[in-house]
Write a structure and sequence with these properties.
Largest sheet: 2 strands, antiparallel
Helix content: 10-25%
Number of helices: 1
Shape: globular
Radius of gyration: 15 Å
Order of helices and strands: EEHEE
Strand content: 35-45%
Structural class: mainly beta
């Protein structure tokens, strides 16, 4: 998730005062999609199972093993 401005290739949804901008092509691939707010931020659930690359527990780790 990131802040973005809508483009012609996006769908825009407004729910409970929050505006969600999602690429039309992306939402077709991952629906259904659900966004929840938890104490520490947003949680996304969708119809695609994402996994980290093999041997990498978080998918964003540097060579030092720290996630970032």
């Amino acid at each position: 998730m990131a802040l973005d401005e809508p483009k012609d290739t996006d769908d825009v949804f407004e729910v409970d005062g929050f505006k969600y901008v999602i690429e039309k092509e992306f939402i077709e691939k991952v629906q259904p999609i659900k966004v929840d707010y938890h104490m520490y931020g947003f949680k996304l659930d969708c119809g695609v199972e994402f996994s980290a690359p093999e041997g990498n527990a978080c998918g964003g780790c540097s060579s030092s093993g720290n996630c970032g």
